[in-house]
Amino acid sequence: MLVLLAFIIVFHITSAALLFISTIDNAWWVGNNFSTDVWKICFNYSNCTTISEDATEYQAIQATMILSTILCCVAFFVFILQLFRLKQGERFVLTSIIQLLSCLCVMIAAAIYTDRHEHMHDAAEYLQLDFKSGYYGYSFILAWIAFAFTLISGVMYLVLRKRK
Fold first, then answer.
1. Cα 71 from Cα 102, distance rounded (Å)
2. Containing domain of residue 73, as a range?
3. Is the pTM value of this prediction over 0.70?
4. Residue 32's CB: how many other CB atoms inside 10 A?
């Protein structure tokens, strides 16, 4: 049982780390001499311009990625609390619900980014960047991997019963 518990804790911490990296790092859309994320556009990998405040879809992405990271961390603390408080044989339902909400937030953010990153063309043309020649960066891919990890851990907590 200790091995299973250690695996669950490591899996959850890995999910949180993936969420932190994908939210913070500047590699959601990468191209020749530029990279973008949900916060800014960087060209020549050093000159950065923040995304316009008028771009409400990016504010939605920012908010849901931050919320997913916070929910994942809260779920971990709730899991630790429930680990010592729940009676034997009970399920970690609250932890599961919080983790599945984190999963939902990541999915929403990545889906909005997939749909709306093309609106960055206007800003890219202003900065004289060839935005269409870019590709999804590793932060975007990590966000989708974090989605899978949080979904799996949310289901694991739902199924998991506290045993001896």
1. 5
2. 2-28+55-119+138-159
3. yes
4. 9
